[in-house]
Structure formats: C-alpha cells, structure tokens
Amino acid sequence: MGVKEAVGHVGNLLRKPVGIVNGAKNAVVNVMNRQPLHTAGMTKALTSDNMNKHLKEMQYAVRGAVPIAAEVIQKELATGKHNRPYNEIVYCNIGNPHSVGQKPITWFRQVLSLVNCPSMFDNPEVLKAFPKDVVERSLKITGEIGGGTGAYSHSKGVLSFRNSIADFIKARDGHACDPENVYLIGGASAGIEKVLTAIISGPKDAVLIPIPQYPLYSALITILGGQQVGYYLEEEKGWSFNIVTTREVIKKARRDGLNPKAFCVINPGNPTGQLMSQQDLTDIVKLCREENLVLLSDEVYQENVYTETKKFVAMKKVVRDLGPKYDDFELASFHSTSKGLVGECGRRGGFMELVGFAPDVEAEIFKHCCMGLCPNLDGQVLTHLMVSPPLPGDESYELYTQETTGIYDALKRKANMLQEELNSIEGISCRPPEGAMYAFPQIQMPPKALAAAKAQGKAPDMMYCLALLEATGICCVPGSGFFQKEGTHHFRTTFLPEEDKISEALVRLKAFHLSFLAKYA
Amino acid sequence: MGVKEAVGHVGNLLRKPVGIVNGAKNAVVNVMNRQPLHTAGMTKALTSDNMNKHLKEMQYAVRGAVPIAAEVIQKELATGKHNRPYNEIVYCNIGNPHSVGQKPITWFRQVLSLVNCPSMFDNPEVLKAFPKDVVERSLKITGEIGGGTGAYSHSKGVLSFRNSIADFIKARDGHACDPENVYLIGGASAGIEKVLTAIISGPKDAVLIPIPQYPLYSALITILGGQQVGYYLEEEKGWSFNIVTTREVIKKARRDGLNPKAFCVINPGNPTGQLMSQQDLTDIVKLCREENLVLLSDEVYQENVYTETKKFVAMKKVVRDLGPKYDDFELASFHSTSKGLVGECGRRGGFMELVGFAPDVEAEIFKHCCMGLCPNLDGQVLTHLMVSPPLPGDESYELYTQETTGIYDALKRKANMLQEELNSIEGISCRPPEGAMYAFPQIQMPPKALAAAKAQGKAPDMMYCLALLEATGICCVPGSGFFQKEGTHHFRTTFLPEEDKISEALVRLKAFHLSFLAKYA
What we know:
Chain A has helices at 3-14, 53-57, 65-78, 106-116, 124-127, 132-145, 159-173, 188-199, 215-223, 243-255, 278-291, 315-321, 359-371, 377-387, 397-423, 447-456, 460-472, 499-519, and strands spanning 28-30, 35-37, 90-91, 182-184, 205-211, 227-232, 259-266, 294-298, 331-336, 350-355, 428-429, 438-439, 442-443, 474-475, 477-478, 491-494.
C-alpha cells in the first residue's frame, strides 16, 4: 500500500468509517490487523453503526491523518530504497521535545533512578556517582512515599508531593494554596478529562473553548456528549481575547438553547502561542462569574515564555487578586511535566488545583480519581521535582541551571528564527510566538488550491500539510484540526527540533510553498 | 471531627450528596477544602443538581467509605494519643502488595533505573554494580525506545515492547499473536475503559458482568450511561459459572428492552478467587457468539494461581482452540503489571490484546488511545520486562527466580491460612481462593444485625466492615460494593500483608466477630 492509499484509507477510518460492517458476506482483509475478517460470514457484534457515536464523531488532529501518513513514509525511508529528497521525517506535529533531540535534565533522572532502585542506597561505590543532594532528595522521597514507586498512592497523589506543589503555587502567586485542593494527575489531559466529565451532563451542556484551540478540548467535549462553543481569538491583534465578542457568543449560545457551563482558557496559547495579559484574564474571571461558568485554565506552558514585555500570570493569582468576593469562584487549573523545560511527555505527570468547587461536587471528582486508583508514581515524583528543583548551594544546582537555561535559550532562538523565516515567505504570515512551543502561521490559499481541495474532499490546509509532508518530510498539523476563523487557513508547527534541522526544514518548506503557489497560480 | 462523623460525612458525600448547593445563603465551611464557601452568597456554577448524573451515580467501593474512614483513624493513630487496641491499620481493602511489605523484584528495578538515567552507562564504576544482563537489557531498551522514557511513544506503545508481548502471548497460548493487536495501557483499568467506551452507545446498551464483580466494571458502565446485567457465580459450587442461568439472564435482559452488547469475565476471579475451567470458558465464548456479544476477559491475576488441580487458560487460547470459525470472534483481553508476582501497582502498566474487532471499530479505539497520547513509559518498560524475564544462564536469573518464588510461595501459604482461619470462625464460610489475591467470605448475619443495619441506613456488610475497622484496624471492603446474591453478605479481604500481620489480624477478627454475634444475638 503506497502512502497516498494509506492516507486515504486511514483518513477514511478515522473520519468516515468504511463500509465493511454488518452483513458483509465475503472475507475482507483487515489492513490494521492483517487477519481475515468474517471468515464464516458472521456479522460483527460491534460495528461502526452500533458503537458509541460520540467516540466516532471525536477528532484528534495532533495524531490524525498527517502523522499517520508520516509513519508510512518513515517506514519507506527506513528501507533506504526511495527517491525522496529527504532522509528523515521532521516531526513538528506534536510537543514531544525528547523525541526530537532535547536531552533529559540530568538531575531529574538521577533522582528517579535512585528512587526506583532503593538497593542502590546500600552501595557506596554507586552513590559516589551521584551528587549529594540527589542522594538526600531520593532518600527523603523514598521515606515519604512509604510503599515505594511500586505501590498505589492516595488517589490525589502522595501527600508530601502535594505539599510541595502547594508551596510552589503559593510562591508563584503570592496567595495561599491548600494541598487538599491539589491533585496529581497523569498528564494535564487526564485532569481536564476529570473536570469536564463532572461538568457535562447532557447534550445541551456547552463548554466555551478558544478558537483556535487544542484538540483535546473538542475531543473530550464530543466524547462526553456535550457541545463546544468557540470564542475567537483575534489573530490580527496577536491572538488576543475580545470580551465583547465572547460575551455575545455566550448569549447567542443561550438563545440557541444551549446551556453554557464552563469556560476554557489556554495560556500561553496552544496552538497560537500568545501570552494573555492580567487584564484579559481578569475580564475572563468576571465574565465567568456574570455567566455562572466554571473556569478551566490550561497553564502547561507557564515556563515557556519568550517575550520580554510580558510575564505569565496564573489564573489562580488573578482570581485571588480580585479579593474575598471571589473566594468561592470555581477554578480548575492544570500544569504538566510534559512541557516547560522539563519536556518529560512520556512520564505522564502533572497536577491540577481545584478551588471554589462545591464540596459535594469535588467529592465526586475525587471519587472519579479513585476509580483510576492513582496517577503513575514516576510521574508523581517528577512533578514533585519540577516544582522543587535544586537550590543555590546544592551540588546539582549549577548543572541543573546550565541545562535548563540551555533549553530555554534554544527554544527562544528557534521561536524567533521560525517566525522570521515564515514571515519571509510569500503568502505566509505568522504572529510571533510569545510562549508555548508552536507557531501557527496563516497561509493565503490561492483560489485554485481551494478548488482542488474541494475536489479532493479535503480541508485546504489538510491538503497543504499532506503535500508538504510528501514533498519535504515535514510533519505539521492542519489548522482545521484546531478550528479557525471561517475562510482562513493555518498549520501548526512546533519549534522543537534541533536548530540545524529547523533551518534545513525551513529551506525545504519555502521551496515547497513557492511550488505550491506556482501550481495553483 | 471524629471518625464516626467523618465516615458519615464522607459516606454522604460519596453516596447522597449533601445539600449545600444552589441558593445557600450562608457561609458554609468546606470540610474538604477548609475554605469558606459562598462567602458572597453566590450560587455555584456546578452543583450536585446540574453535574454529570452518571458520575454521581457511580460507586467505587475499593476506595469507598471504609478506606476513607481508615484514613481518618490512621491520622489519629499517628498522633500516638489514642485508646485503640491496635497501633496500625491493616489494609486488606486493595490489591496493593508493595504498600503492605512486598519487596519490589530487584531485576525490574535495576533495569528501570538504568533506562531512566542513561548517563549511568558512561560510568564503569556504577555499571559494575549491575548484573551484565541488566546492563545489556537496559542498553537494548534504550536503543529501541529512541526518544527515551521522556518522550511520548506511539499511542499503542513502543513497537519492540508490543513484539515481546506478542511473543509472550504466543508462547502462553500456542497460537499466533499480531503485535498490531497489542496495546500498552496505563493499567488494566485504562484498557477496559477504552473498550467499554467504544461499546456503550445509549441508555439501553447493556454489559454482562459477573456477580460478584470487581467494581471497576459497574463504575465504568454507570459513567458511560449504560446498563449492567449481572450473571451469578455459584458460591456453593466454588463460584462457578452456570451457562443455563446466564443464558436466561441475557434473554430476560432482551425481554426487558435492553440491548446486551458485551460480556465481561474476570479469571481468576475478583473478588471471588475462583479459577475457571477451559470448558466453562468455551461455553462463554459460544454463548457470546450465539448472543452476538463482544467478550472482555480480565486476566490480570493469570500468574496468581494457587490450586494444584487446575491451570489458568487464557481466553485467547480458548477462542483459537475452537478453530477457524472463531477467527473473527471479538475478544479483548487484559493483563497488568499491578498484580501477578510483580505487584507494581504504582507503575500503571499493562497491555490489552484486541482480536476480531471490525477494522473501523478498532480504528476508533485506537483514536481514543491517541487522545491520551500514550501510556507512561515506565509502565511500558515494566510490562515489557514482565513478559520477558531473565532466562537460565543470565546473571540475574537466580535472584529473580528466588524472589518470584518467594512471593508466590508466601501468597499461597497466606491464601490457605486465611481460608482455614476464616472457616474456623462461627458464622463465617469461605471458599478456598484458587487464584487472585482475595478471599470473599460469607457472613451469616443475625436478624438483629440486619435490623440494626436497616435502622442505620447502611448495607449490613457495610455496617459490619465499619465496625470491624473501628474495633480491630482491619480495613476490608463490604460485599455490597461488589454486588452479591440478594440476602447474602460478604466482605473482601486481600491476603497480602505479611504473614505475622495476617495471623494477628485474624485473632482480632475472630474476637470481633464473636462479639458482633453476641451483640446481635
């Protein structure tokens, strides 16, 4: 099966399920399973027609058709027999730093290593290889966990870790944080799922999400059987928030018979990379109170800020700065070990803080956490380490600082380089990424390209991204996967690969884009 | 707040949400959050009345009212100031071996340690501390993962791990296994959730579950908005399967307007500990085909078999032994790193194998896995290690064998001891646990105890377990949390704590039980 067929096939599987369902009489080869199907002419118990329709409707572009096509090409490249003008896929579709060359931070891994293998504490020769603070911290953690990393913890996570997170939040925001409100989670996705599950109760329940948004939100809302209501970020003003149009969107949703219950903010923005001002965040909090909405604040990129002119402000601080009248304001905020300078996506770690929730509602969310038993302990350990890194005077401090600074500086350079180069290309415009790990450039699509996409039954930016992948090996995500203003076309690209790879990729991207313009001139 | 109030309070929160919801005008102290609520007389956006009703209805007894009460007592014990006749809680409520003294298996941890800290490969002094096969295996895994344990993997898990799992399944069952059908999962719970999510599509969709069952099943079915239909295991015949009554249950469900779509088996049984025969399993497969049901087989205790007269048979083998007519039979089976002799609950590792699913349906399940990005890498590494342990000739083989044999022998001794002692107590009868980690004894409740429970508004075995905890510090789970035949009363207890602790606990349990009988005589 060639790439084009695979893309078509997988695209169909993911969007419009193929027709081999009830009543198929012939043996059909299952391309995913490589097994004969329906050998006895049986019908399937579970079919595309009778399965969970919400799951079927759900879309998740970050691992959608373009990355799946990239996998097929990668297998072809691995054979060494190909005529392509590139030898590897440059994966810019997902914020997965370690997969594209970012080295793990030594200190985190040293502690994880000792905590997971307590027998090493008995071997002085081995311990000599670790800085003193690593050994001390590992011993402390081992004592605090009790049953070790192999035991289920409390369903909210290990108490001492929650204490350290509460200290981190307090230091960050200048406001109190109760560790009982802190929940360790298996990545931000898992926490967001828990909160949205509690909120969405029926098909008219609606959740406000930014447009463009990170597809986890639309995916969860769809699976949970709710409705998404988009509020537009204004690209021409640096993807900024507009309270006037947003208020109108909420009112319209109510007029349409929907029941808006929650409001999601992603700050710094994904895929848009903007950093929101305290004024905009304050407006959002006040709007949520006016409209009686629970606020979800996705802050996984809080360490990824590259602009010199603004600072990240946590939503918790915004709420508490508003004074006691907002003490009972319902806010869920999320952080993760996958992003920041840590970049440990595979660890599935993070935390959420729930404040102001009615105690009976919070008890239900906690019960849901209990059903999953606990987040994995390595992820918990890493979350604790992320919020309580080595201090000046610790043996590890210098190396830790050097490594984190190195990662930060490189991200900042790459963000700037990417933006400048993209803006130098005819027909592409890109807002400077103030934060996060992504650029979200707009493509001016020639009318003939729009017609071609229509003829192919593809979103124009999906057609663009598939052609870009095919021609250059660069794997991005079409803007349509994140939603965008009608009539605009974008793609999301990370700036995570190493600098020379981004440079080379940009040369190929520019050439591709010019040929794309020429083809559809 | 004393224990009794806490139990009452938390019990209420978990079952019948308290009434501090809409319109409360006074400041109410939130006992969970220790924060003033409704300070401004505001109503909450999210209340017990408008939240997800399925989540509210969901119950999860394993971490329900009894363990929550145990936590409160533990805090009291920790102060040292108490008049209780015990100094610690004996946690028998959950299969969490490392939390009650089972040591991690050295080999697993050594490999995890090296894989997580690649810089150790550069230090010959450190490497000397590890057996040669540990170093070799760790290097091999590091090469195979590519981006390391800090990167998202493929959403099905690392390919080489899936290959090793396929080899394990093939060797176990004597039938082929395609690694494309193997999915690494974050514990069996996560996999079961994915499959049930695909299956349940509406409020009439029903899933057959054993009674007694593991509460994850009832919890997931409730959250997903489906219906559970119980088929009874026959306690008097060693919790055995009865195809006649089960067939009748399915027919009755259809008559009642339900739409049975799937059938769940737990083998070895949880909480019941029985090991099912190949004949019973074959009957189930044939019944599922007759009734057009997807089969889910929970096999997380496949290594925990203590009877000499029977062997564990995997459902995949049962299906394949039936020949080509069953090649397209839809089976999902689950295994975990949390149980067996590994007992690494905190790692959240495991795998599922999906066979016979329609390709478009399997694509939707895969898409759902993609939404969660990937299971944590440490759990994936451990799953790989579980299915490919050291071999004779490897430096680690002897210690590994010694440790696993030690754990197995102790579990077997404890299972026997527990069963014998429980059966020696008047009014308690217990089927011998052939497998898993639990005994599920039946209590003959005196009529006055039943009346007292009714007066307290508690299930009789909930009243029993709370009193047992209060009097002895032994934390078990009431049978009502697992469902049981009307008019019978049970509790589930693990046999995981160390032998002397189980012995002592049994003495206290016996004394408590006699006083319970005397109280309600």
